[in-house]
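WARN no homologs supplied; continuing
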Amino acid sequence: MVTPENRDSASARAEALRREIEHHAYLYYALDTPELSDAAYDDLLRELQRIESTWPELVTPESPTQRVGAPPSEQFDSVAHSQRMYSLDNAMDLAELDAWLARVREALGERGCGFVCELKIDGSSLSLTYRDGALERAATRGDGRTGENVTVNVRTVKDVPLRLREEVRPSPTAPSAPAAQESLFATTDALEAADDAAAAGSVGWPDVDVRGEVYMPKASFERLNAEQEAAGQNAFANPRNAAAGAVRQKNPAITASRDLATFIYQVVDPRPLGLTRQSDALAWLREAGFHINPDVKLCGTAEEVREFCTGAIEKRDELPYEIDGVVIKVDDFRLQDELGHTSKAPRWAIAFKFPPEEKTTVLREIRVQVGRTGALTPLAEFDPVTVAGSTIARATLHNIDEIRRKDVRIGDTIVVRKAGDVIPEVVGPVLGMRPDDAEPWEMLSDCPECGTTAWRPEGEVVTRCPNVACPAQRLERLLHWASRGAMDIDGMGEQIVKRLVETDLLHDVADFYALTFEQLAVLDLGRVKQDGTPTLLGETMAAKLRAAIDATRDKPLARVLFGLGVRHVGATVAEALADAFGSVDALAEAAATVPLTPGEGVTIAAARESDPIARVEGVGPEIASMVRAFFGDENNVAVIERLRQRGVSLEQERTEPARPQTLAGRTFVLTGALERYTRTEAGEELKALGAKVSGSVSRKTSFVVAGADAGSKYDKAVQLGVPVLDESQLERVIQSGLPPESGSTGA
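OK structure emitted
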């Protein structure tokens, strides 16, 4: 169709096209009852694009053509949620689900209640805000109180309505939804009442906040990974990670290409809309134009809830998207308010988590992998199998004792799963399918990388290669030095380190500081271009890497000690050693001290007191012996000397604290996933204020900071009555420098 010749006719046609496109999008995404073919729909969209390109002043923010139209973003601004986005407590089996149902029934007494069961989509949480009926903002969950503004990207997701349908605009006094319904979506009377009221006198839209999940369908995920592999890039681990990454792309055009979808399931404040139940809210969301999951059931009894959950487990593989459980909610909003929340989750809802998905496959090989500390770890390699949304072909078997306990043999048909739907795990063999020639597997007697005779220290389960010059250890040690928790050399990834090792430019960590710009710029990355020429690192990346390496010369001493890879010296112990000794030289001198040996009148306490390293809080004799062994190796001493010669600081900078030590004497423990910080970053912020950050909870702990999916440390804090802070409270402590007045005890 030709573009209208005058502005008035163009404006009228553009508005008509927008209404028609929005109507067909609603039929397609919300009701799943399309009336147009994809080609006919695309013709309407192209006609609108032609009009708007001819008359740019007619373009509106909510036009379907504007789903991709914003320039790439360098960062995402933080935005505060209108109400906190809580996590959910989990029921890991039907017994725990029954216990929760019983608690709810007991709390509500004789009144009873209904429950809405919804599939738990394995995606990324999303909050959408509508002002005057138009999409104003989209935000990630963040820490539950503050998220990231991802509006320009979410506008590209085709099933997110840019404007709410006028049919559900509320009247000045919105009618209450029916108190009881024959079916979940029987809200026709309420909607017709709202239409009548609106016809009598038009009213403006209230602010509407809704929440849901953005996800990547299985087919889209498979296509994306095929494209990644064809381009020589890493595949995504699972659809959830792929969806979360797509929403946070700097370029919205990339988000648009990822074929995302949404399921919306919550109206944050249902009162202005006259909604009194979750079942009504789902009906309203669908009528408003949102995509809601069709697999929803209103259950009146605990048995019906159980049946829905077990049925969901059985059909999860048949669905075109990933689910990892069922969310059960009390239907009545008034009863939800009465039940309230704990410090981390609502009491009126729970997530029934599916048991780990298990698949069978054939174990083809047990390969031994050498880690940076010389640990020889057996790795199971099996026929690829899709588990919990991603394809896996290997899993650690940990050690020879674990292999013997499970009696896993090459050639076995094995059961594999993902522990917590994340970590690949071999459950064990199917003994009835074992080949006749399958033999018990034994650990190698020599290191597979360097041939050195392996040994198993007394009292340990891990077999080790004692050769610190072992090539496999070298690669892992180099990667550890460059890692974020150690020296944090930005851009120095595994592929580049491997090529530097293979081209004989890297032998130990001191060699990082001898690399020249010229060497990096011409580094062959081991890939061939279409014209047959090798792919080089290039001058731009070389300059960035050279600058990133130079920036690490003055890293804190604790980072250096952690980066050296001394066995059992993690980040926390490295901090303690750096504070206690102040320099590598002082620590080396202490390592040369021969402590007393317990026995013949020497107590364990006296022996520890004679060891300057062991008496550092949080260290102890075992770690002290590892530190002495490290400094007793002349190869390690030589590396340290080369680091000194190449300008790496080996001393603790003794300066006055930049900030008042307002948290001195208080001990914090960090657990769970934080959104605005890594746990390392949050710990450093707290330490800058004088706090001690510990890895374990005890009665001496002052506060536990609990992020998403906090685990046993949170539970222990509740058990001991240690105050628990969420991330917003942590943020206030860091920003103000003031100790928290109090924290929840998890009740």
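Residues 174-202 have pLDDT under 50 and may be disordered.
OK
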